[in-house]
Amino acid sequence: MKKKADGGASAGGQASQTVHLARHEELESTKPCLLSKSLERSYASHALLRVTSRKHPGLRLYARAHPLNFSEAVRGISMLRSIVAGALLRETEVEVQEVPEEEAELQEVVMVLMDRYLSKRDIWHLHLSMMEDKGQVIYGGFEHNLLQHIPNSRIQTLKGAEGPMRAGCVTPRTKVVFRSGSANVIVLIQVSSELLAFSLSGRPYWEVLLDCLTQLVERSFKAPGTSRLGHYVRIVLFARAWRQAPRQAESASPSCADGTPRRRQHHDPASPSSQGARWQFQDLASPCSPGSRVDFDLVTEADAEQEEPQEHKHDDFYEVFWEGVARALPPTQMLTAQIRKVLMRLRESRRSSQDPKCQGWHGVTADDLAEASRGNVLECLNMVLDHLDMHYLDRSLRITGQTIILLTAGNGLVRATSRRIYEVTDRRFLSSGPSSSKALHMICVRQPPLHPVPWIQWPGGPAPGGKEPAEGELRVRPSWIDLSYHSEVSFCPCAPAREWARASFLNLERLKRTGGPLHVPAWGEDVCAFAARRPAPTTPLPNLRVEEASREAGRTKPELWEELRIPEIRPYFRVETADESCAVHRPCKFTEYIMQPTRFSYTDVESEKINTMNDLIGCRLEARTSELVVEAAPPAGGAAARPPGAAGAEPWLADGRNLPKALHHGRVRAADGRIEWTMEPRDEGLHVSYGDYTGEDKRSVELACKYTCLVRRRAWPGPGAPSEEEAEGLPVETGEWLRCRRIFHLPMRPHWNTLDGIVSGVLSMPPALPYPVEPSVSSSEDRCPGWQLRSAIKQHLYVFIPMDEEAQSHQAILSSALQALGGGIAIGVDPFQVMEDLSAKALAPPLPVPSEPRRRAVASFEALVSGLENLLFGESSASKQGGRGRSLGIQVVPEGSKFTVSRKSCTVYTRDMGVPSAHPRSRDWFEVFYDSQFSPPKPFILVLQWLVCSSVHLVNFTLRLTRIARDNGFYMNRMPIAQLFPHPAPHWVWSGCRETNFDRLGFSAPHKVNLPTGLTTAERDRLSARLLQCWLQPPLSFLFLFSSPQLDFQVIDLEPDPPAGEGGPEPASAGWFREMSEGGSDQPSRAQKRDQSRQLFQRLKGWVLCHREGCCLIALREAYIDWYENRLVYAEANDTQASQERLYCLNELRCTFLRETHRVLSSA
Hints:
Layout: E1 2-3, E2 17-24, E3 33-36, E4 48-52, E5 60-64, E6 70-71, E7 77-80, H1 81-86, E8 93-98, E9 106-113, H2 120-131, E10 137-139, E11 153-160, E12 163-164, E13 167-169, E14 175-180, E15 184-190, H3 205-221, E16 232-242, H4 247-252, E17 264-265, E18 280-281, H5 301-305, E19 314-325, H6 332-347, H7 377-389, E20 402-408, E21 413-415, H8 419-432, E22 440-444, E23 455-457, E24 481-485, H9 497-505, H10 542-553, H11 558-565, E25 573-575, H12 578-582, E26 589-595, H13 605-623, E27 626-630, E28 652-654, E29 657-659, E30 666-670, E31 675-682, E32 685-692, H14 698-701, E33 704-713, E34 738-745, H15 752-760, E35 794-802, H16 805-808, H17 811-821, H18 831-840, H19 851-873, E36 891-892, E37 903-909, E38 925-931, E39 933-934, E40 940-948, H20 951-967, E41 970-975, H21 977-980, E42 1007-1010, H22 1017-1032, E43 1039-1044, E44 1048-1050, E45 1074-1077, H23 1086-1092, E46 1097-1099, E47 1102-1106, E48 1112-1116, E49 1120-1125, H24 1136-1162
Parallel strand pairs: 2-7, 3-6, 9-14, 15-16, 15-20, 19-33, 20-22, 21-23, 22-24, 25-27, 36-39
Antiparallel strand pairs: 1-2, 2-8, 3-7, 4-5, 4-8, 9-11, 10-13, 11-12, 16-19, 17-18, 26-32, 26-45, 27-30, 28-29, 30-31, 31-32, 33-34, 35-40, 35-41, 37-38, 38-40, 42-49, 43-47, 44-46, 47-48, 48-49
Helix pairs in contact: 2-13, 3-6, 3-11, 7-8, 17-18, 17-22, 19-20, 22-24
């Protein structure tokens, strides 16, 4: 090591040094850069060092002189081999020089997140880490930047003031963009009547749509550069079908030469000609003839004024075609071939035909299809939003971000059936829509119209091309739609300009075939065959070509496929402008309180306040569409007078971490800035204030829309299995449409005062799973109020089942209970409880479970619990402290008939865990709820709930626990909470329909089998016994999971009344808040809310049984049977073969269940 000979100095006056450059691997150290311990005295703490090469003076790498980056084992400087190789640096000596912070300041950073779920809280902490210690150095081409937050990431862009950079530092002024390589992508394919028409290329539009889908799959889902498993993809086909006309109208309808019925017009109930006839037909050519164009989208002012009746007009259909990770997608040709089969069957379908091959799409025929503009687009988007809003239940730990892609043969015009459905959709997208920056990608395979698009038209609203509403009113051109056009044909440059100009100006539906030959460019060919016969035009038409160029600019380009390959996550962090800081709002509602952080032991009070503040900021960013606003200058009286991040600005020091002064306090805004939280550390504690400037009344907040539709999930039968057409004579066929009722509403927000108290440690984590049922407890008590935290709380439900069939079987237990009960069993009675009660009375026979398999299961479970405690508590666990450490206190019953369990819980701090990601400075924690005892063959249940815990820790925990369970002979099955225990809907949508009183997943609706009516109580008990025996024995071999002989876990959704008086802020532990409102309140009283919630229960009478591997569930209720396919199993298959095997297994189990259940019911 030597000083530079010419004594050159930097702008800061520091001379450069020539040092040895070494390379190290990630196995040796995960730090990107290590410095020799001998250099520590040469530079100030946290100084920025520039690393350059004499042969490449323009190449600049940077390192930070952080105390933890110095090592005795390093001579000179050592950098990761991947970083040095990416920079093409081959020298063994480099120059190191201390430089000012501004030199390495980044203007923009684009980071791609891989294979992990990062909540907004996690992303905020990740962004916060970039700004710590004067800004951490970020390296391009390095996949493990900030390894403690995200184990796998990739820097896509590093841009400074002078252009791209190899390394740099992030400041509050840096634009940080996060993209996801593993997002939740929902692909919607609209099946409309336009798909059967012919495009300009001479092909039907459904072929053009499949070409677009092929490019989407190949260039976005299967393209290299995404995560290991890729996106989680769900493909849904949806359509609207007009209800069928009377038979006399069908028989009188004119037909084409090939027998195809004429295409009917949209039914107008207000038209005099429509009285007495359901359908009206017009004399058009067959949809399979390319010689005519149907005027699908003719818009008139009369259409805009007509309100479409909601009853008896149409049915909406949804089919979940495929679901799973992108890596498990079937070959693209196979996938498109299956969709092509559906569309071709639609093309050949006849409404009047009795031939099963002409019944189209499971009963929906081509005659029934609605036009794209009149389809169920808005309703479908609300169905999707229902799924996305429930992301916190059964939270996937490898998915970050949400994207909706809509493929349609429409042209950007959407006609809503009512203003209300559009208003609900618009409000939901703006308040809590998908987390991607572009919420909805609408890709049209037709030509754009001549009027502005996208355009939403509702009855009485502006017609397309008309005057748009004023600012503040409901917009006809929503900002959440990103519209693109897929080229149906490339225009031929060698054809006569007159013909192609005409084609580009006229609407595609109105284009008529001329008398001469129709010259169509060869599809996919570079040279048009027409060019050899006719020369190119000599007279250019510049104005027409400019118009065509502008149209081409809106069509799908490679940038779109790249955007869908790694979708951008919606920005949440920005610096406030001077105009915003001066804006004054008149508050409609204001709340404030003081938090006293007590969750973590601390000595630096100020640091704990700000750390807690960052956790509360993360919870608000996660719970709704919000953004964190950093003030351009500190408030009056602040410690720093310079802009945040400026050179020389005094940083804030907390727990050894340097942060800019601008992050002393936080301001989170939502709803376009009309809702605002402000958090600021004060002497008395962390001050939290909430301002609502929306001025919304009760009617606006409680906006809702009722909806009924038909859904199904496509069955993928395995080799030799019966097809859907062959599955006849069953109570519920695999191809049957299931009716689904929904009420679309704005999402409810958590109780912020309670949430803040839990995060700060003032309040304990409440349970959110309604389990177990305790007959001795009054049903009016809300024993699991955790659901009121809504999207802030994440949950996982795990069930441990012995792999030994002798130790897991429940058939013998049920047989003994039935023998004692006389052959019948009342609804919901737990057979295990029956055996325990008989044992307490000394009336029970010996337990019909082999003693040796039970002892093996108990010994294996004790080893499992020991491994679980080591994971949860690390070195402080009881097994590592000689029995004196922390323990879960689970009782094991090796023999006897003691089966009653209670719920226990403990708080787990990741800094104490025995997982690789644990570190002393971690502030992550989660709650574990579990059974108090294990008594085989009854399963053992464990629930995870968390508010502020990174998926990095949870993935390490679940992977290791799964391995421990498997090694000790147990299945660790994850059960779908959203299907078993959906959270209650807001009280203002409650009605007499239980189905709509809970927020359910429409695309995961269960198959329902109605039970016979008119049976006596004894007959009903015997039928329940026969059904349970049928399901517990082979070939199904299901197991009891839950049972309830009563309605339990009543829903009580009550907010605390505000205290009287106008005193100062109260601590959150008191449960009070101070509310100041202008005008009277129209909210329902506590008594009214209590009256509304009197009859809503989370647990019904009956049993829930599960497959031993957890892939299917059965719920037996008083009047019906529900068959569930565990929606979580689709994410478990990591390749195409495993996915196909899983789908085949599900289809076989479903057919077996239907066959066996039908056999029992037919004999009832």
